[in-house]
Amino acid sequence: MRVIHYAVERYKGKLPEHRLDQYLCYLFFLPIIFAGPITGFPDFLRDLRRRRWDAAVFSRGIERVVSGYAKIVVLGNYAISIRFAQYINDNHPSGTPLGEYLDCLRFGSNLYIQFSGYSDIAIGLGLMMGFRIAENFRLPFLAANIGEFWQRWHMTLTGWCRSYIYLPVAAATRRPAAATVTAMLVLGIWHDVSMRFVLWGLYHGVGIVVWQRFRSIRPEIGDGVLSRITGRLLGTLITFQFVILSFALAKENTPAAAARVYTVLLTGWW
Amino acid sequence: MTWVRLDILGWAALAVLLAWLPPRRTQPHAVAALTLVFLSIHAPLSAAILSLFALGSWALLAHENHPTQRLLLVVGAVVVTLVSFKLGARPQFPTDLGTAVVPL
User: Fold this and answer.
1) Which domain holds residue B61?
2) 20 to 30 A from A230, CA-CA: which of A204, B20, B62, B91?
3) Residues B57 and B91 in one domain
4) Residues B78 and B57 grouped into a single domain
5) What does the pLDDT read at residue A64?
6) Is A28 close to B100, i.e. CB distance below 8 A?
7) Residues B51, B102 within the same domain
8) Which residues does chain B have within 8 Å of residue A53's beta carbon, measured at their own beta carbons?
């Protein structure tokens, strides 16, 4: 991802003057080797040139690393993967609609906690080393629509897909909807090269296109504070359900198994 | 390979030390060298791939006014390798994010 970013920006002539060793320092930067975030080369180069010891920044880095470990170990590995999973197994077994829904919730929240924990550790280590690494998550489950969700979830990958997939495809086809679906398909395949993640990308891509169409025709909600708060709450609730239900595609091993989960969720309540 | 392992935490601590203790001009290089050693031990294939891409992309795109074919060659090589790597790492996803995405 970072090599493609570098190659394209270099091709466009948009990178500042730099040397080979600085490029190597960018690619071989330990904190972002595991799971990103996908930091841009110009930002890295700026910090490489300007970095200096700052005890306050170092302290913030330690806090961020501890916060990341707490997320992964306490929330992800213990609270969600053990206690919450145990609660679901004991009270709402697989095959019941509530059980399937809660399992989607467990999978999605664990993925978020684990991934944002990894990002926190990387960002914290970066700060401890004098580098400001780009943020990757910004409370995505509070997004009021699916477009906003993707501006808050894995932000650096979304930004990468916007720059190197969405914009070129949109420019070539003049069809933003096709570009959106293509970008989301690539984003899905980035997670795993399998049919379930192709479908997962398609699900989100179609969701964003539908949201964009709805946005252009939706009735005016009104300017009142109460209307706006109600609209935001309703949007957040719908987006949350839409995203949680998408995890059925990601957590099941085959599309057929995911289809069984959706069947239970749609027909099992009555 | 994940951050939640004591030995990996040790590597991270070493990286922080190397980011400040050596002479100022060599600090980032020391961290990069440590990362290469780390990758060579824990994921030698990743170390080789990342080194190859680093030097290859630099060599192909070093001069100004390079042709589009060179850009496509770099991007194509990265995409093909990434897809192959992902296919190989499929059994780990999503339980081991670290393995599935090295090198990013």
Assistant:
1) 44-104
2) A204
3) yes
4) yes
5) 95
6) no
7) yes
8) 20
**What is the average pLDDT across B54-74?**
80
Asked if the Cβ–Cβ distance from B90 to A13 is below 8 Å, we say no
B38 and B48 inside one domain: no
Subunit contact B36:A28, Cβ cutoff 8 A: yes
Task: State the total domains in chain B.
Answer: 2
Domain positions in chain A: 2-50, 55-128, 140-267
Sign of CA dihedral B80, A27, A180, A148: positive
Are residues B57 and B6 located together in one domain of the fold?
no
Q: What is the pLDDT of residues A206-240, one digit of tens each?
A: 999 999 888 777 666 666 777 778 878 988 999 99
| B55 and B93 inside one domain | yes
Asked if A114's CB is within 8 angstroms of B75's CB, the reply is no
